[in-house]
Amino acid sequence: MNLIKKEGIQQYSPIRYLWIGCIVILCLFSCSSPKNVTYFKDIPDTIKQRSIELATFVTPVIQPDDILQVTIQTLDAGATSMMNQSSPIFTANGTSPAAIPGVPTVNTTVPNGYLVDKNGYVLLPIIGKVMVAGKSTDLVRDEIRNGAEQYYKDPVVNVRFANFKITILGEVARPSAYIMPNEKVSILDAIGMAGDLTIYGKRENVLLIRDNNGKKDFVRFNLNDSKLFSSPYFYLHQGDVVYVEPNKSKVNSTDMSQVRNISILTSVLSLVIIAVSRINF
Fold first, then answer.
1. Taking the model in full, what pTM does it have?
2. Containing H/E element for 82?
Protein backbone atom coordinates (compact mmCIF):
# COMPACT_ATOMS: atom_id res chain seq x y z
CA MET A 1 0.00 0.00 0.00
CA ASN A 2 1.28 3.46 -0.90
CA LEU A 3 -1.06 5.16 1.62
CA ILE A 4 -0.94 4.72 5.42
CA LYS A 5 -3.78 5.86 7.69
CA LYS A 6 -2.73 7.33 11.00
CA GLU A 7 -5.29 8.91 13.37
CA GLY A 8 -7.64 9.49 10.44
CA ILE A 9 -5.05 11.25 8.28
CA GLN A 10 -3.80 9.72 5.03
CA GLN A 11 -0.02 9.76 4.71
CA TYR A 12 2.21 8.62 1.86
CA SER A 13 4.55 5.72 2.57
CA PRO A 14 8.36 6.25 2.60
CA ILE A 15 8.63 4.32 -0.67
CA ARG A 16 6.50 6.90 -2.42
CA TYR A 17 8.76 9.69 -1.07
CA LEU A 18 11.81 7.79 -2.22
CA TRP A 19 10.52 7.54 -5.78
CA ILE A 20 9.59 11.21 -5.86
CA GLY A 21 13.05 12.18 -4.60
CA CYS A 22 14.84 10.05 -7.21
CA ILE A 23 12.76 11.54 -10.02
CA VAL A 24 13.55 15.09 -8.86
CA ILE A 25 17.30 14.36 -8.75
CA LEU A 26 17.31 12.82 -12.23
CA CYS A 27 15.40 15.80 -13.61
CA LEU A 28 17.87 18.26 -12.11
CA PHE A 29 20.84 16.51 -13.70
CA SER A 30 19.24 15.85 -17.05
CA CYS A 31 17.78 19.30 -17.67
CA SER A 32 19.50 21.11 -20.53
CA SER A 33 18.73 23.87 -22.96
CA PRO A 34 17.54 23.00 -26.50
CA LYS A 35 20.40 21.98 -28.74
CA ASN A 36 21.42 24.32 -31.56
CA VAL A 37 21.50 21.71 -34.29
CA THR A 38 20.32 23.87 -37.19
CA TYR A 39 22.79 25.80 -39.35
CA PHE A 40 22.23 29.51 -40.11
CA LYS A 41 19.30 29.96 -37.75
CA ASP A 42 19.27 33.71 -38.41
CA ILE A 43 17.84 33.08 -41.91
CA PRO A 44 14.02 32.78 -41.64
CA ASP A 45 12.57 29.56 -43.02
CA THR A 46 9.92 31.57 -44.89
CA ILE A 47 12.36 33.72 -46.86
CA LYS A 48 12.42 33.22 -50.62
CA GLN A 49 15.75 34.81 -51.41
CA ARG A 50 18.52 36.52 -49.50
CA SER A 51 21.97 37.59 -50.64
CA ILE A 52 25.04 37.57 -48.42
CA GLU A 53 28.38 39.07 -49.35
CA LEU A 54 30.89 36.25 -49.71
CA ALA A 55 34.41 36.41 -48.32
CA THR A 56 37.19 37.15 -50.80
CA PHE A 57 39.15 34.09 -51.82
CA VAL A 58 42.93 34.54 -51.65
CA THR A 59 44.88 32.16 -53.85
CA PRO A 60 47.25 30.10 -51.68
CA VAL A 61 50.97 30.30 -52.35
CA ILE A 62 53.43 27.43 -52.38
CA GLN A 63 55.61 26.90 -49.33
CA PRO A 64 58.51 24.61 -48.41
CA ASP A 65 57.42 21.01 -47.72
CA ASP A 66 54.44 21.34 -50.06
CA ILE A 67 54.04 18.59 -52.64
CA LEU A 68 53.18 19.58 -56.20
CA GLN A 69 51.63 17.43 -58.88
CA VAL A 70 53.00 18.53 -62.24
CA THR A 71 51.80 17.16 -65.58
CA ILE A 72 52.96 18.10 -69.07
CA GLN A 73 50.92 16.98 -72.06
CA THR A 74 51.80 17.12 -75.75
CA LEU A 75 50.53 15.54 -78.95
CA ASP A 76 53.16 12.85 -78.46
CA ALA A 77 52.21 11.29 -75.13
CA GLY A 78 55.36 9.18 -75.04
CA ALA A 79 57.59 12.24 -75.16
CA THR A 80 56.41 13.44 -71.74
CA SER A 81 55.94 10.06 -70.07
CA MET A 82 58.93 10.69 -67.80
CA MET A 83 57.29 13.83 -66.45
CA ASN A 84 53.85 12.32 -65.93
CA GLN A 85 54.57 8.84 -64.66
CA SER A 86 53.34 7.93 -61.19
CA SER A 87 56.48 8.17 -59.13
CA PRO A 88 57.52 8.64 -55.52
CA ILE A 89 58.03 12.14 -54.19
CA PHE A 90 61.18 13.78 -55.60
CA THR A 91 63.14 16.31 -53.60
CA ALA A 92 65.23 19.09 -55.06
CA ASN A 93 68.47 17.18 -54.42
CA GLY A 94 67.24 14.24 -56.48
CA THR A 95 66.43 11.88 -53.61
CA SER A 96 63.18 9.99 -53.32
CA PRO A 97 62.20 9.31 -49.68
CA ALA A 98 59.98 6.35 -48.91
CA ALA A 99 57.68 8.45 -46.76
CA ILE A 100 57.30 12.08 -45.80
CA PRO A 101 56.55 12.73 -42.11
CA GLY A 102 53.55 14.95 -41.49
CA VAL A 103 51.80 14.21 -44.80
CA PRO A 104 49.00 11.82 -43.78
CA THR A 105 45.91 11.34 -45.92
CA VAL A 106 42.58 9.66 -45.34
CA ASN A 107 43.97 6.33 -46.51
CA THR A 108 47.45 7.00 -45.04
CA THR A 109 49.15 6.82 -48.46
CA VAL A 110 51.89 9.24 -49.51
CA PRO A 111 50.79 11.44 -52.44
CA ASN A 112 52.87 11.33 -55.60
CA GLY A 113 54.49 14.55 -56.72
CA TYR A 114 57.48 16.84 -56.30
CA LEU A 115 58.48 17.99 -52.83
CA VAL A 116 59.35 21.66 -52.36
CA ASP A 117 62.66 21.78 -50.49
CA LYS A 118 63.49 24.15 -47.64
CA ASN A 119 64.91 26.68 -50.13
CA GLY A 120 61.68 26.72 -52.15
CA TYR A 121 62.79 24.69 -55.19
CA VAL A 122 61.41 21.62 -56.93
CA LEU A 123 63.47 19.39 -59.20
CA LEU A 124 61.73 18.37 -62.43
CA PRO A 125 63.06 15.82 -64.93
CA ILE A 126 64.66 17.45 -68.00
CA ILE A 127 63.62 20.97 -66.94
CA GLY A 128 65.69 20.99 -63.74
CA LYS A 129 65.30 23.16 -60.64
CA VAL A 130 62.39 25.59 -60.53
CA MET A 131 61.85 28.20 -57.81
CA VAL A 132 58.24 27.88 -56.62
CA ALA A 133 58.04 29.13 -53.00
CA GLY A 134 55.85 32.18 -52.48
CA LYS A 135 54.16 31.73 -55.88
CA SER A 136 50.70 30.53 -56.85
CA THR A 137 50.21 27.33 -58.82
CA ASP A 138 49.04 29.43 -61.79
CA LEU A 139 52.29 31.39 -61.86
CA VAL A 140 54.40 28.24 -61.48
CA ARG A 141 52.44 26.61 -64.28
CA ASP A 142 53.32 29.45 -66.65
CA GLU A 143 57.00 29.31 -65.69
CA ILE A 144 57.19 25.54 -66.16
CA ARG A 145 55.44 25.86 -69.51
CA ASN A 146 58.03 28.39 -70.64
CA GLY A 147 60.78 25.97 -69.65
CA ALA A 148 59.04 23.01 -71.27
CA GLU A 149 58.70 24.84 -74.60
CA GLN A 150 62.45 24.45 -75.05
CA TYR A 151 61.98 20.68 -75.29
CA TYR A 152 58.34 20.13 -76.36
CA LYS A 153 56.06 21.69 -78.95
CA ASP A 154 52.98 23.43 -77.57
CA PRO A 155 53.04 21.74 -74.15
CA VAL A 156 49.98 21.89 -71.88
CA VAL A 157 51.06 22.17 -68.25
CA ASN A 158 48.99 21.61 -65.10
CA VAL A 159 50.22 22.27 -61.57
CA ARG A 160 48.25 21.57 -58.40
CA PHE A 161 48.82 20.80 -54.73
CA ALA A 162 49.08 17.09 -54.02
CA ASN A 163 48.96 17.57 -50.25
CA PHE A 164 46.43 20.33 -49.59
CA LYS A 165 45.69 18.89 -46.16
CA ILE A 166 42.92 19.94 -43.79
CA THR A 167 42.55 18.19 -40.42
CA ILE A 168 39.06 17.83 -38.91
CA LEU A 169 38.86 16.79 -35.25
CA GLY A 170 36.21 16.47 -32.56
CA GLU A 171 32.50 15.87 -32.95
CA VAL A 172 32.28 15.00 -36.65
CA ALA A 173 31.28 11.72 -38.24
CA ARG A 174 34.75 10.94 -39.64
CA PRO A 175 37.54 12.91 -37.89
CA SER A 176 40.75 12.65 -39.88
CA ALA A 177 43.26 14.52 -42.04
CA TYR A 178 41.90 15.06 -45.56
CA ILE A 179 43.68 15.84 -48.82
CA MET A 180 41.45 18.32 -50.63
CA PRO A 181 40.88 17.98 -54.40
CA ASN A 182 41.31 21.71 -55.06
CA GLU A 183 42.69 24.90 -53.54
CA LYS A 184 39.36 26.68 -52.95
CA VAL A 185 38.09 24.94 -49.82
CA SER A 186 35.63 26.50 -47.38
CA ILE A 187 34.95 25.54 -43.78
CA LEU A 188 31.67 23.98 -44.96
CA ASP A 189 33.46 21.93 -47.62
CA ALA A 190 35.78 20.51 -44.96
CA ILE A 191 32.96 19.70 -42.55
CA GLY A 192 31.00 18.06 -45.36
CA MET A 193 33.97 15.88 -46.31
CA ALA A 194 34.19 14.76 -42.67
CA GLY A 195 30.56 13.63 -42.76
CA ASP A 196 29.04 16.68 -40.99
CA LEU A 197 28.89 17.38 -37.27
CA THR A 198 27.38 14.81 -34.96
CA ILE A 199 24.31 15.69 -32.92
CA TYR A 200 26.69 16.44 -30.04
CA GLY A 201 28.81 18.96 -31.97
CA LYS A 202 28.88 22.53 -30.64
CA ARG A 203 27.82 24.39 -33.76
CA GLU A 204 28.09 27.85 -32.26
CA ASN A 205 31.75 27.49 -31.28
CA VAL A 206 33.81 25.70 -33.95
CA LEU A 207 37.54 26.35 -33.60
CA LEU A 208 39.98 26.99 -36.47
CA ILE A 209 43.73 26.70 -35.83
CA ARG A 210 46.04 28.16 -38.49
CA ASP A 211 49.81 28.56 -38.84
CA ASN A 212 50.72 32.18 -39.53
CA ASN A 213 54.41 33.06 -39.90
CA GLY A 214 55.57 30.96 -36.98
CA LYS A 215 52.53 31.71 -34.83
CA LYS A 216 49.18 30.02 -34.28
CA ASP A 217 45.95 31.86 -35.03
CA PHE A 218 42.82 30.70 -33.19
CA VAL A 219 39.47 31.67 -34.72
CA ARG A 220 35.94 30.77 -33.60
CA PHE A 221 33.08 30.08 -36.02
CA ASN A 222 29.35 30.16 -35.35
CA LEU A 223 27.64 27.82 -37.81
CA ASN A 224 24.26 29.13 -36.66
CA ASP A 225 25.05 32.57 -38.06
CA SER A 226 25.05 33.37 -41.79
CA LYS A 227 27.83 35.94 -41.19
CA LEU A 228 30.11 32.92 -41.50
CA PHE A 229 30.11 33.40 -45.30
CA SER A 230 31.65 36.86 -44.94
CA SER A 231 34.40 35.82 -42.54
CA PRO A 232 37.97 36.25 -43.85
CA TYR A 233 38.59 32.73 -42.51
CA PHE A 234 35.69 31.17 -44.45
CA TYR A 235 38.17 29.73 -46.97
CA LEU A 236 40.74 27.39 -45.46
CA HIS A 237 44.49 27.26 -46.01
CA GLN A 238 46.81 24.33 -46.40
CA GLY A 239 47.49 22.79 -42.99
CA ASP A 240 44.46 24.28 -41.20
CA VAL A 241 42.97 22.35 -38.28
CA VAL A 242 39.24 22.47 -37.51
CA TYR A 243 38.08 21.32 -34.08
CA VAL A 244 34.42 20.81 -33.14
CA GLU A 245 33.84 20.88 -29.40
CA PRO A 246 31.35 18.50 -27.75
CA ASN A 247 28.27 20.14 -26.26
CA LYS A 248 27.20 19.89 -22.63
CA SER A 249 25.04 16.83 -23.26
CA LYS A 250 28.00 14.84 -24.59
CA VAL A 251 30.26 15.99 -21.77
CA ASN A 252 27.67 15.05 -19.16
CA SER A 253 27.04 11.65 -20.73
CA THR A 254 30.71 10.77 -20.41
CA ASP A 255 31.23 12.29 -16.97
CA MET A 256 31.46 9.33 -14.61
CA SER A 257 31.75 11.64 -11.63
CA GLN A 258 28.21 12.83 -12.29
CA VAL A 259 26.94 9.27 -12.22
CA ARG A 260 28.77 8.77 -8.93
CA ASN A 261 27.27 11.94 -7.49
CA ILE A 262 23.77 10.87 -8.47
CA SER A 263 24.29 7.53 -6.76
CA ILE A 264 25.58 9.19 -3.58
CA LEU A 265 22.71 11.70 -3.47
CA THR A 266 20.16 8.95 -4.06
CA SER A 267 21.64 6.88 -1.23
CA VAL A 268 21.69 9.86 1.14
CA LEU A 269 18.11 10.72 0.25
CA SER A 270 17.05 7.14 0.90
CA LEU A 271 18.67 7.20 4.36
CA VAL A 272 17.02 10.52 5.20
CA ILE A 273 13.60 9.24 4.14
CA ILE A 274 14.02 6.07 6.16
CA ALA A 275 15.15 8.03 9.21
CA VAL A 276 12.23 10.46 8.93
CA SER A 277 9.75 7.61 8.47
CA ARG A 278 11.03 5.87 11.63
CA ILE A 279 10.65 9.05 13.64
CA ASN A 280 7.10 9.63 12.42
CA PHE A 281 6.01 6.08 12.87
1. 0.67
2. helix 81-84
